[in-house]
Amino acid sequence: MLRKICVGFALFVVACNGGGGGGDAGIATAKESGGPLDCTDAGAGTSFPCDVAPIIESKCQRCHDQPDALATCLANNSCVQGPFPLLTWSDTRRPLYASRVIDFLPDAIAKKEMPDMEVMLDPPVEPLTDAEYKTMLAWARACAPAATTVCQ
User: Fold this and answer.
1) Residue 47's closest CA among 144, 134, 137?
2) How much is the pTM?
């Protein structure tokens, strides 16, 4: 089952892989039963993995933070407010419109729609490096599992 989700100015077509083959080298695809992948208990902890946490902090949280934390950067055009905060692992499971963040995260990363390089900010938005892209994509495609330890 494909679902369309509108986030800000971007439209995402969401489909999840039920683990049963198909798709393009792991790109999330529709499950044969038509339902989304069950990602509710991915991982044994509540933290971002240590290889993912610094990427989220440096590349995502500039816009995906609490509204009050974004007030100054919004005022000086150095950020835009994302449709949800991405401060904790549980934020990947938060409801978003008719779905959840995890349901569109792999596709948004795979298509390099995030970070949004088209917004004009000062300083400019920095794209994910190849290594960051591979790390984030692998994590998201694996259901964005939680880690048991908090990274320092």
Assistant:
1) 144
2) 0.71
